Amino acid sequence: MATQTIERSALVEVATLSSEVLTEVGKAFLGGTEPAELILTSLIARGHVLLEGVPGVAKTTLVKAFAAALGCSFRRIQFTPDLLPSDITGTYVLDGRSGAFVLREGPIFAQVILGDEINRAPAKTQSALLEAMQERQVTVEGQTRALEPPFLVLATQNPIEHEGTYPLPEAQVDRFLAKLKMGYPQAPAEREMLRRYSGPHDPLAETRQVLEPGTILRLQKLADAVHVSDELLDYVLGLAQYTRTHRRVALGASPRASLQLVNAAKARALLGGRDFVLPDDVKHLAPFVLAHRVLLSPDAEMEGLGPESVVREALDRVPYRAPQAPR
Fold it and tell me: What is the pLDDT of residues 31-75, one digit of tens each?
């Protein structure tokens, strides 16, 4: 059994805060708790999330409600085909009073970024997010500036088969800790949405702030202290290697994917009030963390095989080997 690494009172506090965040997000977003849970897990694991779904399934509403509950600075970037990288990062302009060039900051200089319809912009503009997402900094005309933590990118995209979209390159996709596919809501949830949003009050405006930047940074440090056994590390490694050696896969999960799966499992354990990771944490998160990083061979794509099926196959065939009890 793992030794206690985090005080019990801190674990109870984290579980309470997690429940409160989900409750507040649920006031505006009626698609269940799983999307908000995944975003919160990614935030504590210092990762970013890609939300995919057809227009009108409340992807933007989910992000706005989540940002309101965090108490962080929030900016929205609407990606369009004519959007330029400088429209995201900012540019230097001449200050008439001082006669010096000063940086006019772009919307990337916020703590929570909504990249709306990110695959509506070409690859050059998409790449403006690469440095910010990985290194938490932005370089503008040779000058590098750090981004204020916590920094979280929540990007939405339409399915790539829709007209006017640009598939994200592999390097960009790999920067997202998790990808969540959002479908149409169940009939009861859609009925409740019609009731709430047809009235005079905006549910988004009723979302209460639960966290603040300092609290989020403290939770991230607590997640670092969550215990992961060597057996679980071997299990994560086995899942990643399975995707790399699969005969129908052209590009498997990267080492970054393995690391982010471990970090996400630690964050999920913490939010659940535990200071140790269980195999179920890894199994629950693996489809969200690994599938979007798996690139299938052309013949597999023609047959309709999806990356999710490869990850499910890995979960079915790669065993978790529990530690042997001492004799």
Answer: 899 999 999 999 999 999 999 998 889 999 999 999 999 999 999
The b/e string for 10-37 (b: 16+ C-beta within 10 A; e otherwise) is: bbebbeebbeebbebbbbbbbbeeebbb
d(CA 240, CA 258): 6
**Residue 215: in which H helix or E strand, if any?**
helix 213-224
Q: Which of 178, 176, 185, 149 is nearest to 59 (CA)?
A: 185
DSSP secondary structure code for residue 276 in this structure: B
Q: How far apart are CA 183 and CA 287, in angstroms?
A: 16
Task: Please tell me the distance from the alpha carbon of residue 204 to that of residue 220, in angstroms, as a whole number.
Answer: 26
**Contact status, residue 239 vs residue 315, Cβ threshold 8 Å:** yes
d(CA 280, CA 260): 16
pLDDT at site 1: 44
What mean pLDDT comes out for the span 153-167?
81
- What are the DSSP calls for 83-150, one per residue? --HHHHHEEEEE-TTT-SEEEEE-TTSSSEEEEETGGGS-HHHHGGGHHHHHHSEEEETTEEEEPPSS
- AA identity, residue 243: T
Element (H, E) at 38: helix 34-44
- Compute the radius of gyration of the chain from its Cα atoms: 21
As a residue count, the chain comes to 327
- H or E element, residue 216: helix 213-224
158 contacts 119 by C-beta, under 8 angstroms: yes
Q: Which two tokens stand for residue 229?
A: 């056994």
Count the neighbouring beta carbons within 10 Å of the beta carbon of residue 299: 9
Q: Name the token pair of 177.
A: 């800790």
* Domains with residue ranges and CATH for the chain: 23-216 (3.40.50.300), 226-320 (1.10.8.80)
